[in-house]
Amino acid sequence: MIVFVSAFIENVFPPFPGDTITLVGAFLAGYGEVGYIPLFIFVVIGGMSGAMLLYYLGRTKGRSFFIKYNRSYLKIDNLYRIEGWFKRWGVLVLLVSRFIAGFRSLLAISAGIGVFPVPRMAFFTLISFCMWNTFLIGGMFLLKSNWRKLVGFIDSYNTVFLIISALVVTGWLVIIYKRSSAKR
């Protein structure tokens, strides 16, 4: 049950270390304290619950948020870009969403804002959750006594993706700022 709650919270509040708790659960499963299958199911259902909540918020509140705060990067034109982006790349984005640290939650909200169909959102996000958690839990199963290697790898992986994500967002904000300055 703890892994369900942690996977849910990680999706709603991304700095929460849900993957670390999943790895601890997998470590305990290696010693027979928990079953691998129930662990996997609880993590996936918890994560999906959080992702679908964010999708729902994006779908029901996101558009009105853009319309209400129609300035700087929240311009209505950007809303249309998100919709177009999800029409073109939505499936791929959702399939890799769990592998993109720092943007996982934003992608679920964006899918809602972009009016990506609910069944497709649920299906491709589920596949992404299953792949990611098979990697985490399966990696811990295979490494057992070398679990520190997997934890170190996940930590490095997340750090690198967070740095890359921060650079991409910073670059994007600079471009938007320059474009808005040039229009004035």
Uncertain regions: pLDDT < 50 for 5+ in a row?
none
Number of E-state strands: 0
Question: How many domain regions?
Answer: 1
Overall pLDDT level:
80
Strand content: under 5%
Tally of individual helices: 7
The helix/strand order is HHHHHHH
Q: Describe the sheet with the most strands.
A: none
- In percent, how helical is the residue content? over 70%
Distance between the termini: 54 Å
| Overall spatial form | elongated
**Which class best fits the helix and strand makeup?**
mainly alpha
Gyration radius, in Å:
18 Å
How would you describe what is shown here?
The protein has one domain (about 1-184). It contains seven helices and no strands. It has helices at about 1-10, 20-30, 35-70, 75-95, 105-115, 120-145, 145-184. It is elongated, with a radius of gyration of 18 Å. The model has no long low-confidence stretch (mean pLDDT about 80).
Layout: helices, strands, pairs:
Blueprint lengths: L1 H11 L5 H13 L5 H33 L7 H21 L7 H10 L4 H26 L3 H37 L1
Helix pairs in contact: 1-2, 1-3, 2-6, 3-5, 3-6, 4-5, 4-6
Keywords:
mainly alpha
Q: How do you describe this structure in short?
A:
With 184 residues, the protein is an all-alpha fold. Helix content is 82%, strand content 0%.
